[in-house]
Structure formats: structure tokens, C-alpha cells
Structures
1.
Amino acid sequence: MSLSGNPQAGHSVGMFELLMQSFDIMASSLTRLELREADVVIKPEVGRIAFTDFGSRNLMITLGEQAARR
């Protein structure tokens, strides 16, 4: 089963993609709320690495450590 995506784009959005979009929206909302209360925020420059890209775990840890030192 797929749901209609952007009709002008001529493609459908599958259930997995819809679920991932829902998680992205929830995570963004939660992040905005948490950032308001934070004393310190470290934003590593992770580029376009997806949060589901577990293969880049070590790279992301290194980038976080570098950002914390700065």
C-alpha cells in the first residue's frame, strides 16, 4: 500500500518513507523544545549524514568531539 505523495511530482510515498517523515517531524519538534532549555549547545558540522546512517557512527563521534573542543 502506498499513499499519494506530491501529485505534481508524479510519485507515491511508501509507508516507510511516511513513517520516516513522521519521525523527522517529531524529532525536530522535540529538538526545538529541548534547545530552549539548554545551557550549552554543541552543533557538530555533520553535513548531510542521516541520523539512520549507523556506519558513520565513529565519524560523527569524532566530529562531535572536535566541535566540543572549539
Note: The two ends are 48 Å apart (CA to CA).
2.
Amino acid sequence: MEQTILLNKNLKALLEEIVVLNKMQKSFIQSSLEALTPEEIENLNIYIDFLVTKESLEISYIAKCYDLIVKDTLREQIYFLRHKHYRYSTYEEVAGSVYLNDDYMTKYMYGLAITSFLWPQHCQMKRWFSDRIPKNRKGKYLEIGPGHGYYFMDAQKKTSFENFIGVDISPTSIRLTKSILESGFFGKFSNYELKLIDFLAVDLNEKYDAVVMGEVLEHVESPVAFIKKINKSSKQDAFIYVTTVINAPAIDHIALFTNVEDLDKCVNDGGLKLKEYFLTASNNKLSVEENLKKLLPVNIAMVLEH
């Protein structure tokens, strides 16, 4: 309870509005806040202030962005448990309603950024990334699918890479990432480039010292093709970090992984090796193994190597 004192005006107002939209979130949010460090709460304060002051967003709109993620995810989980497969299986089925729909994609990205603080499994993934990414390495950093831009921005703050490249197929994601970097709210950034391209369709003609791809594999029809392209685009000693999900339905998830073995095979088929990985489950009252057995969502972060 003591940590709630650290919540600033905008964040308090946002959390109150979220509970108005969904009373079930009240105890969940309180529990999530108690698990955050003071630094993480302060970072969440800052991010919400950025949305309000720099993006000129109303608290009610931000709450609806988060609520969209919560309710869309719940609906897809119910569908998945009933049918044992995701609702869609091709990019074409979801592209128009998600990636190329600026209104929906904007809400989706803002909501997703907030879950990286308020959903324990997403927060744990963020911590693992921060622990694993090399802080003093030089060279070029490539991020595939920066989405809302927070990870891409944070990597520039915390590492010594000299050039940062972000590629995304969504115009909305490029716009949001550019906005967070140009806002001046999180610092000054100049050594980056954002490209609106299909990672698979373009030859980048480079080999990178770090390749990061968060929450992309589940969105594509050919996950192995992405691993092969990462293999081709990374140096032999590159830091390669990839996250995805197991049994975790969402409106735009089309590639279903049911266990770690599925992913290990995908990585191997793409010419890389699974060096280490981290699993965290949506239901933290059960073990990861129990979540997998019950087909409940599990997040996985992987460090890959040549």
C-alpha cells in the first residue's frame, strides 16, 4: 500500500478510470502495483505524463486503450479454450483491421505499453530484457517491430550501441515510435533510423551487433522465415533477443506455439540455437507447467546464438 503514495495525479486518475470501465481490474491493479519497484512506478508515472502532456491524450481515452487490450484478450482466450486454435491464421485476415487500421492500432499500442507495467508477466519480461541486453557493447542495434517504441527508446538510454535501426510494417508503429523519441520527454535521441518496411521483403545489406524482436513471431505466417532472416542479418557473436507467446490468443495472433519444444524447433529450423530462455505465466497462482497443461497464456523470452 505504501507504494501507492508514489502515484502521481495523472496515473491515479487513469487507474480510477480503468476501474470505472472494468471493476474486475481494481484488485488486479492493486496487486500489480505492490509488485513494482519504486523506479518502475516512477517510469509508469512518466509514461502516462508523456501521453497526457506530449501526445495530448485524455485520461478517459488512455483508459479505453488499456480496456481494449483487456477485453479483446479475454474474448480471444475464451475462443481459444473452446476451439484449441487461434481465431485467425493468415496475415491478410488481420492486417486491415489491426496493423493498417490507425485508430485501432494506436489504441492497441498504447494499451500494450501500459500492460508492460501493470501485467506481471509483461513486467517480468521487461526486467529480463533489461538484465540480458549488453550495456557496454558497441556497433549497430536492429529492432524488428518496435511497436509503441518504449523498448526501442529504453535500449537507447541504457546501452552503448552507436546506431539504432527500427523496422516495422505498421505505419502507426513507426509514428508512435518516432513520437516517443522526438518528444524530448525521455531524453535526446539522434542516432536512430526508423523504416516502414516488411523485414522479410527487404535486404538490409547489413549484419548487426544486436537484433531484438519482441512479440512478432506470433503475428506472422512463417516464423521460421523470420528466424532465418535474423540469422542472415546478425553477426556471429551478435546479441539476439526474441520474445513470443505460448497458448496466448489475441486478435492478431496467427502462429500458435504450444510449448517450448515448438519454439526450439522453429529456432533450429531457422539456423540458430536457443541459448537461454525465460518463461512467465499469466496465471501466477499456478506454476508455468500448470499453465501450459491448462492451455493458459505463457510468455517466453529467448536469447539466441549462431
Note: The longest strand covers residues 234-246.
